[in-house]
Amino acid sequence: MNPIAIRRIALITGEYPPVPGGVGDYTACLAEALGHQSIAISILTTAAAKDEPTAAPSGLTPSASVVHRIMPGWGLPDAVRFLRYVAASRPDAIVIQYQTGAYGMKPLPNLIPALLRLLKSRPRVVVVFHDLNEPWLAPKSPWLGRLANRLLARLSDVVVVTNHEDRTKLQTRYGTIRYEELIPIGSNIADVGLGGSARDDARHALGIAPRVIAAGFFGFINEWKGVDTLVEAFARARDRDPRLRLVFIGGSHRPGAAYSFGYADRIRHRIAALGLDSEVTWTEFGDADVISGWLHAIDFIVLPFVGGYSYRHGTLIAAITHGLPIITTETAVAADGRDCDSLPPLRSDETAELVASGDVDALAASMLRLASDPAYRERLSRAVVKLSPIFSWDAIAKQMVRAIVHDAAAARYPPRSAGAPP
Predict the structure, then answer these.
(1) Which of 37, 251, 267, 353 could be 327's S-S partner, Cβ–Cβ 3.0 to 4.6 Å?
(2) Domain range 197-389, CATH class
(3) Taking the domains of the chain in order of start, what are their residue ranges?
(4) pLDDT tens digit sequence for 75-130
(5) Does the 8-186+392-412 domain belong in CATH 3.20.20.240?
(6) Percent helix, strand, coil in the chain (nearest 5)?
C-alpha cells in the first residue's frame, strides 16, 4: 500500500501505440506496471488519424488503463480541452512524458503546471524529461523555447530525468528545481528468452549461417546514431574476418521524421558502393516478441551514438536486458557519487566495449575482437545482464510512485480524501 493515497494517475503523452515511438512505448509499459500497484491509469494523447488503429498495445489490459485519444493538438487553443479532461478524470497526479518533438514542438505541455494553478483543487504535477530539447515557438526567438522548458521544470512538483547527462544539464539550464529524481527508462522489448534450436531458427530466418558472426544494430537510422561510422567500420572489419555479417533490426526510419529518409537512403547507397549488399540484412518492423528473437539471434550489438552512449536510449536498454555483448561509444559525462549505486555507468572491458565516437578504426578493431573471442563475448554478456534489474518496469513504477509521494510534496499538497469521487 502506498504511504499516502495515490489512486489515480494521468499520463500525458504526445504519442502512443500503435504509433511508433520510444516515448509512447515507455508510457504503455509504465502504465501497465503502475496498474500492477492497484493504481487506476488514464492516458491522454493525440487524437488518432482516421486510418489509424486504436487498439491498446499488447500486454496492456484495458481494465488497468483507459486511453483518451482526444487531443487534436498541443497548442494554446487546446488548453480548454485539456483542463476539461483533468476536471472530469480528477487524477491525484499528472505525469507529463516530455519530448517536445512528440507534441509537434507546441507549448501546451510546458504550460500544464501553470494552467493547473487555475484549478481550485489541483493534482501533483510530475514531468519526465526524456530529453531537454526545447520547443521552437517563434522565428529568431530561441529564448522562448528555453523559457518554456524553464517554466515546466520550475513549476512542476517533481522533475524526473532518465540519465546522468540530463541530470547534469538540468539545474545548469533551469536553476533551482523543487524536487528532482533520476529514474531510468526500461526496455519496451520484453526478453522472450530464446535459446537452443529456437535461436538457430531465428538465425536461419535472418539468413545467418551457422559459422557466421552476426553484428547487429537496433533502432531507426538517424544521423545521431553513427550508422555511417558503423558501415565503414564493418567494411574494414569484414576485409579481415569474412565471417562477419551486419544485421539492421527494426525499421530504417520513424514515420513522421522526414529528415531520416535521406540519411537512411545514403546509408543503403554506401553499403551498395562498398559491395556489401549481400552481407547486410534488414528486418523492418516486427512485434516485440519477434524483435526479441532477432536480438537473441545476433552475436553482439553495435550502437555507435555520435554523442556517446546514454541510458535515455531504449535500444541500449534493450541490449542490456537481453544480455547482449555491447559495443558503444564513450560518453563525456560520468556518474556522480549519488548516481553510481542506482544507475552505474558502463565500464569498458567490463560491461561493454567502449570506443571514441566517429573512430572508424577503433570500432572496426572492437568488432574484430568480439568476433574472434567468444569467451570475451560471454564475459561481457554475463556482466551486463546483472544491470538489468535496474531497468525493470516494476522497479521503475515503484520509483515513480515514491517520487510522487515524497515528503516535501505531501506536506505542500495533501491528497484528496479516499472517498473523493472519480
Answers:
(1) 353
(2) alpha beta
(3) 8-186+392-412, 197-389
(4) 999 999 999 999 999 999 999 999 999 999 999 999 999 999 888 888 999 999 99
(5) no
(6) 40, 15, 40
